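User: As part of a screening pipeline, I want to sanity-check one entry by hand. Below is the sequence and the SMILES for nicotinamide-adenine-dinucleotide. Please return the complex as structure tokens so I can compare it with the automated output.
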Amino acid sequence: MSAEYPAMKLNGQTHIVVGGAGYIGSHVCKMIADHGGEPVTFDNFSSGHPHAVRWGPAIDVDLRNAQSLNEALSAYQDASSVIHLASSIEVGIGEKDPAGFYNNNVIGAFNLLEGMRKHGLDRFIFSSTCATYGETNKVPLTEDQNQNPFSVYGKTKLAIEHMIQSYHNAYGLKYITLRYFNASGADPSGEIGEEHDPETHLIPIAMQAAAGLRGKMKIFGTDYETPDGTCVRDYIHVNDIARAHILGLGKFDAGLTNLEVNIGTGNGYSNLEILKMVEEVTGLPLPYDATPRRPGDVTQLFADASKAKAELNFVPQYSDLEYIIRSAWNFHRSRWQL
Ligand SMILES: NC(=O)c1ccc[n+]([C@@H]2O[C@H](COP(=O)([O-])OP(=O)(O)OC[C@H]3O[C@@H](n4cnc5c(N)ncnc54)[C@H](O)[C@@H]3O)[C@@H](O)[C@H]2O)c1
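Assistant: Here is the complex for your manual check:
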């Protein structure tokens, strides 16, 4: 697949990437550097990796510590934007530890927005999620759909969306809230990819199972009203997500002041379709058990991607399923030395 990036140039601009040591953040950093910009990673390395910070400096800072965050921001008050990807993301942990999630996600975002206000930084891109929509039977999901998240994770993200809107209304913050669907795949260089621990996402789990690094994987529910009975999700390549940020930065330059937008492909794949493609690409049999439905799983979630096209000129380039799985396998195979 071609590595055709938009013509946009960031011309030596500095962009603060909060969570730049993580899966998606490291791809955003690489793409900023590929466009001539300098990404500065702010991260506490709670789930991110020092080895994933390759395209600019890393500042070891925790969003929950307002004082050290302000010190870090004061060194970068000329930055062109702040891109905020840092978050607690594991849905199951959020249910058991809502205090930890609200503290890290909501208080962390509040400290960041306050720090930006203090330092005159007024362009903000926020990583939100399709999990803010919650239970819905209406697909594809449009942005104006009712947001009623059922997970603590989704609730913290929605609270942050509201906070951002309030900062826009009262203080003139310019923002783009990107509601990502399922991030997947890896940069074709094999340098960076998905390294969550523990891993909860379907594709890397399937690869671990195929590679014999874990036992049989579980497919939760085979009696959904979908063609093969398994849940359907919208998988978008991480470099397409990264591109959406670059396009967003260009829109700020063109005068955009506020936007909430889905970042998905508009296509859904079922769990079994993913497993089949993993088997095809890896050439390995994939052992799995079909188990009962998991509470909270929605039958199908996929984006209406038309607003992203209209507002950001965003059309996915890398999200063909086979390419997603090949790029992920390329990364994991070298990481696991297979
Ligand atoms: N992965 C997905 O499929 C997906 C889907 C929708 C939305 N998102 C959102 O995208 C963002 C990035 O997700 P990811 O998969 O790359 O996660 P990740 O865990 O790989 O990255 C998160 C990064 O944030 C850092 N971080 C966490 N808390 C911090 C704090 N208090 N201070 C400083 N740094 C902190 C972590 O160390 C890590 O580097 C998250 O906000 C997530 O909610 C992800």
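Points to compare against the pipeline: The two ends are 24 Å apart (CA to CA). Residues 14-184+235-264 form a domain with the Rossmann fold fold (CATH 3.40.50.720).
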